[in-house]
Amino acid sequence: MDSHYPGSLKGQFLIAMPTLMDPNFSMTITYICEHTAGGALGLVINRVHPSLCGKDLFEELKIPYIPQFQSIPIHIGGPVHMGEVFILHGQPLDWEGSLGVSAGLALSNTRDILEAIAVGRGPQSFIIALGCAGWGADQLEGEIKANTWLTSPALEDIIFELPVEERWAKALEQLGIDPAWLSGTAGHA
């Protein structure tokens, strides 16, 4: 893919405006993993599956695991490819099929990284998600122009260290926006 796409949001956060009522994206923060002229792909990083955890995934895929990793949360990465597993992770970045996103983050969806995570030999920082978010050519750009999303530089501590329920507000705060100030109506100057 063309990594020199002008205006690419690869490696950035997409922060849903409160007016975004789509239940898949209401009050979400999405990390953009790829953005080219052909479209964009990202992972929602603040939605955890209510009933699935690492044990369920490892058993479904017949991957041996150690007990301390059975309760790893499984995120809902978005409404596209809901049956596929995506892992957003830090170092090391050289797993089979890893897509480098930034200097310190990659996106993988191969069995080798899941097998390593299941026994404690995977990357120190990671999110396992089912599904992803996807946009066709010019779709994301149109949604941003329509004030559906705010964009900001991504911070790894928001992705990996903050509790899931605090991530959306913290991403807004890094832009200098108090989430309480955002109302359900958008004004245009």
List the helices and strands and how they pair.
Layout (H helix, E strand, L loop, with lengths): L11 E5 L12 E8 L2 E6 L3 E6 H7 L12 E4 L3 E10 L9 E2 L5 E3 L2 H8 L7 E11 L2 H7 L3 E5 L2 H5 L6 H8 L15
Parallel strand pairs: 5-9
Antiparallel strand pairs: 1-2, 1-10, 2-3, 3-9, 4-5, 6-8, 6-9, 7-8
What does this protein look like?
The chain has helices at 54-60, 111-118, 139-145, 156-160, 167-174; strands at 12-16, 29-36, 39-44, 48-53, 73-76, 80-89, 99-100, 106-108, 126-136, 149-153. It has 189 residues and is an alpha+beta fold. It has a single domain, classed as VC0467-like. Strands 1, 2, 3, 4, 5, 6, 7, 8, 9 and 10 form a 10-stranded mixed β-sheet that branches. The termini are far apart.
Stretches with pLDDT under 50, minimum 5 residues: 185-189
Reading off the top of the CATH hierarchy, the class is best stated as Alpha Beta
Q: Tell me the CATH superfamily.
A: VC0467-like
Domains (count): 1
User: Quick one: overall form?
Assistant: globular
User: So what's the oligomer here?
Assistant: single chain
The biggest beta sheet is recorded as:
10 strands, mixed
Identify the CATH architecture. 3-Layer(aba) Sandwich
What is the count of β-strands? 10
Please give the alpha-carbon distance between the first and last residues.
Answer: 37 Å
Helicity level: 10-25%
Rg estimate, integer Å: 17 Å
- At the fold tier of CATH, the topology name is VC0467-like
Structural class by secondary-structure content: alpha+beta
What's the pLDDT, averaged over the residues? 91
Q: How big a fraction of the residues is strand?
A: 25-35%
Order of helices and strands: EEEEHEEEEHEHEHH
